[in-house]
Amino acid sequence: MKNKDKSQLLTASRTLEIRFSEVDSMNIAWHGSYAHYLEDARRAFGEKYGIDHATIAANGYQAPLVELNIRYKKPILFGMKPRIDIWYRPTLSARLTYDYEIRDTADGSLLTTAHSVQVFTDLNHKLAWNNPPFFEAWKRRWGIAED
Amino acid sequence: MKNKDKSQLLTASRTLEIRFSEVDSMNIAWHGSYAHYLEDARRAFGEKYGIDHATIAANGYQAPLVELNIRYKKPILFGMKPRIDIWYRPTLSARLTYDYEIRDTADGSLLTTAHSVQVFTDLNHKLAWNNPPFFEAWKRRWGIAED
Amino acid sequence: MKNKDKSQLLTASRTLEIRFSEVDSMNIAWHGSYAHYLEDARRAFGEKYGIDHATIAANGYQAPLVELNIRYKKPILFGMKPRIDIWYRPTLSARLTYDYEIRDTADGSLLTTAHSVQVFTDLNHKLAWNNPPFFEAWKRRWGIAED
Amino acid sequence: MKNKDKSQLLTASRTLEIRFSEVDSMNIAWHGSYAHYLEDARRAFGEKYGIDHATIAANGYQAPLVELNIRYKKPILFGMKPRIDIWYRPTLSARLTYDYEIRDTADGSLLTTAHSVQVFTDLNHKLAWNNPPFFEAWKRRWGIAED
Hints:
The structure is a homotetramer.
Chain A: E1 11-15, H1 34-49, H2 53-58, E2 65-72, E3 83-88, E4 95-103, E5 110-119, H3 133-141
Antiparallel strand pairs in A: 1-3, 2-5, 3-4, 4-5
């Protein structure tokens, strides 16, 4: 697989609402709150492309995170309604790999970048080494070729 | 600075308590909860070596995270009381850089590794490009040489 | 003040999104997550009627909760998008008093009722015994008579 | 059942650790964080008297909250290590009813009081109208008479 341009990738986006409870004593979103924002993005993606929690569970799998990287470039202030974009990064292995960007909608500036990797396990937390059949079907449905 | 052996680094450790509210529907600690565990570790470190929130704030600074990397190697189950270890990684720049490991105390197996980077800002979120004087003093106090 | 009918009260409503991280191992929204939902409702109310956090802070006050009562009548399941309604309950004292109802939009059934009371304090957490001037003005603006 | 004196009730207590992430922009513990503190107390009680989550689940039951009342009397500040006490309130019905008090250990002052009620359900969230056998046995074991 070549490192494709983002414009060729499956993508989704949504507006984030920063809760008062997510703001710390510095008056900015607490860094741990971003895990919620990334999950909000994965959910928007999952509902758009049919690979949400419910679908994965209905097929007898779970998709726990095994890797999470976040770069906090500018603080998110309480009251901001930033936009989050998510891109699915195709891989050969049995993984769900996403890139994320959070931007201030007021001036378009980049606030955060992030990257996450999920694997598939059965309901007893046992790792699936190969692509689950439903995931293979999902990739074919969306024309995801890994050359 | 050479990449020092961990045994030469300042370190702290503590036991983690996994809250029921931190466990997700897969019955494992939700990946976003780990931000709490790393913060618990930084706090244990900060209180041991005199570089906690209160000290930083009393010197007119804040130390927001700018980078967070987590590798989830094995799930943390509800009821586990794992141990977290934290190491301070010396750098020349005005940053607080930590490595972390979470281990199952039952069998010593490695559950999680993580890495975080904090910068210093003033109370208006303005970045300190140089080492704050209190941080220079802190490094001297603990004999942290960056060769 | 007589116990007014709800139809005469200032009210707001919004749809709730239940996050995966808010669901516990019973696969229902963890009871502590409801504090977020009530806050979401207060925010919708505050933005509609001009009594949000920012307005209160701009007038030199804070409005911490002093009382919170929640009745969990039916569980909220992951994937539900219930509606929350909030009503402002007029009082003579320097307090913000709200009633809440969460309903399943699928069948209209009542999932939760709640009640909260906030007082006003200055920025040093000192209680305001009398109605702050901005709050008096706010009540006049919305024709809130306490007979 | 007469309203017994607290000194006759089963009780447990523990120290609370206030996390940085639980503190809001007012620099006090966010009111929603208290649900964690009460859960920490129930857990201490449950482990002391053998009625923790694991025991309840092993008997095929869940114990969701149906009622939660909190009175916030004084703010909990970051850095405080307050003590929480929990008392089990005997009832005839199939319920777990607790009272709570949080106190500042520095001066003994009362910060918070709370009250919670849990029911028993099976694993499909179906309410148990009668006392589950394991709960009857638990009450006998601890000599809980409801006169």
